Amino acid sequence: MINLKNLIKILALMFFVVLFFNSCNGFGSPEYTLTITMNDGVEGTPEAGIYNYKEFETVSYNYNSIDENIQIEVLLNGNARTQEGTITMYNHLEIIVRIIDIRDTWEFEYNKEDGTSGTFDVTFAGNTPFEGTFSDSRGYTGTWKVENNDLTITFSNWSDYVFTGTLSSMAGNYTGENIEGTWNASRKN
Length: 189
Description:
By secondary structure, the chain is mainly beta. About 10% of the residues lie in helices and about 55% in strands.
């Protein structure tokens, strides 16, 4: 015969067993969420939403711009990824897919052909992600334009300097005052 004390112990043990199985999905693999945010102008799979996957499950993704002349970026937990690939679920992950829009402040590093280098900040503005004006931390200004993945930055008051490069890498070459060199930029946060 079971007395009340033993019955309470059995019920408490069953309660803790149920809690344990619920917290770890039984003896199976844990599940992680994949949150996908897609901004206007992009398409692909998986579509925007929140998905659950088991630990170490592989997820294929593929994203493109609706307009083939617009470049996009795919960010996995804030880090750049290719537009198509796979990820392995090992934690809660977030994918953000968006049009590359340089309208922001960027830190530019330039390297002259003589080996010297320098840095300055550039703030891009404009009504669209394709062209506009800019000013830099030294007081120089000019215009910028994006065509496909090509970026052209033309200074209006820094001699004849023109920076050209690719939007997706934010890097390229520059010329001005009979000087040539390379540049790269990173978005300031």
